[in-house]
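Exercise 7.
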Amino acid sequence: MSISPTAEGFRAAFRRPSLTLAEIAWRWAVGITATTLFFFGLIEYLNTLPVTNRELLFLRSRQPYLVGQAIAHILRGSLSRAVISAMVAALMLTLLWIIAAAVGRLATVRALLEYFRRDVASYVSAGASTGDGGRDVASNVSTSDVAENGAFPTLVRLNFLRAAVALAAVCGFLGAAVLSGFASPDTHPRPGLAFLIFLPLAGLVYLAWSSLNWLLSLCGIFAVRDGGDAVGAIFAAASFSRERAGPIAAVSTWTGLGHMVVFVIATTVVSMPLGLAPLVPWRLVVAAMIVVTSAYCAVADWLYMARLAGYVCITEIPEALFAPTPPSPQPVPPDRMQVAPAMTLQTTIDRDEPILSDVPSLALET
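Solution. The predicted structure, written as tokens, is:
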């Protein structure tokens, strides 16, 4: 028998909807907190801005130049406070995400490990009980207990590294923008060349960030399973991604294609209320966009859980079960069997052979 980690990941996401709900709970808690804090801070900041009668007159004129001058005068002297407040809010939200992500990943990975070590292991044992070789393979399925200690601090450290990598990526994008700006000075502006330089630099930064972020997110599985430190989890994840590159690529590809399809569908659906914006009330348009966006985020979290379950399946199931079973040889019917002609093996010496004669030149005379 053989096991597909992609199919097992989707099956685990179907059979255990509580895992997706747990993933949605901590992700949406952080997202709703960030959104609420953003709008609350924006409203409070706008309420603290002094607006004089002259600036209000410029704003009501609807002239782009006058409106720009009024906004620049209003924000003068108070924008620095807004930047400092935004930095403090981002720091607090990052701390909240680090703790919430550690708690959520600890709960989901433990549940997936128990699922694959109990349900899938019994399924493999039942399916492989037809032969002694199958029993040997099934006996290699891990049945040890999940590590109880040391997982949460390790997950916190790994999430801190992910946040640091994200900050480094932001600095990398800013550096790419600065470097590309040198190709388009004010004296000889060349925006096209600057964009062509910025695009590959930004692509390299994104590729480096996505690779490191994926590896650090994969480390959470080994941090929960083994209970080691962050360095050991990173080493285990790197070795795992090198040794099981084929199944990992299969799981990532299929879940990535599913995510792309869902994104295209959600983008198409959300464009419909935008097209009807001049005909329907704006509140209805905003409500429809919120519903479609929430549904897309829920499906994306479900796909992420299916991918995580596929990775856990690869770590827990022996590699021999991932390879397709070679077909057994088919018996040949008796009527098609060809019997080879019997060959008689000569075991005596021919005394009449001339080369064996004792008479000189007898072979030449014959």
